[in-house]
Design brief:
alpha+beta; ten-stranded antiparallel sheet; 10 strands; about 45% strand
């Protein structure tokens, strides 16, 4: 008789443990599903002040009225603060450099102009314009990606790529999460279907 009660208690403890595991698994799956599906990056044209992005919006990229593209990383997007988009942007910075040879690789366009040089150390230099060419030395105008702090006035925007919540995907994730979670609980607990 005592052995039977002990077995019932052990079975109940096992079900409770499985129930906690199933709940934790469901919570983890719901978190992953919701965090990934609820937001998207949307490009918005800016014609008038009414088109400016709202305060504190996250910004992935901006095309200025001059045509210049300014990009931010997804990990550290720009933000709309007061009347400007501010943040650490990745920009291509022009500079004149002397590249020492011997050159591992020199790539040329069909017209014969150089567009990329790999030096003896293996560093790749994207060349815009060759200023002076010698046998083992090249002076060129290049563009290197650099991270710089920027502040772009909203009045200088032509288009902006902003983060927004996708209501349709969010609703689908919630409904799908409940169905999948319920099915997982039924499988883990062995409840009738």
């Amino acid at each position: 008789m005592m052995d039977h009660r002990f077995r019932i208690i052990k079975d109940q403890e096992r079900r409770d443990t499985m129930s906690r595991k199933a709940t934790a698994l469901f919570a983890l799956a719901a978190f992953v599903l919701f965090s990934a599906s609820c937001t998207t990056w949307r490009t918005k044209a800016v014609y008038t002040p009414d088109d400016y992005p709202g305060p504190n919006k996250k910004v992935l990229s901006v095309i200025k009225t001059s045509g210049e593209l300014v990009e931010f990383s997804k990990e550290q997007p720009g933000r709309v603060r007061a009347d400007a988009v501010v943040g650490a942007a990745t920009v291509l910075q022009k500079m004149n450099v002397e590249i020492e040879g011997p050159f591992f690789s020199v790539k040329k366009r069909t017209d014969g102009t150089i567009y990329e040089v790999t030096d003896a150390k293996g560093q790749v230099h994207p060349v815009l314009l060759v200023l002076k060419e010698e046998p083992n030395r090249l002076t060129a105008q290049v563009r290197y990606p650099t991270t710089l702090g920027v502040s772009i006035p909203l009045s200088d925007l032509r288009s902006v790529q902003i983060k927004r919540i996708d209501v349709g995907k969010t609703a689908l994730a919630i409904v799908g999460g409940y169905f999948l979670g319920g099915a997982a609980l039924m499988l883990f607990l062995g409840l009738p279907r």
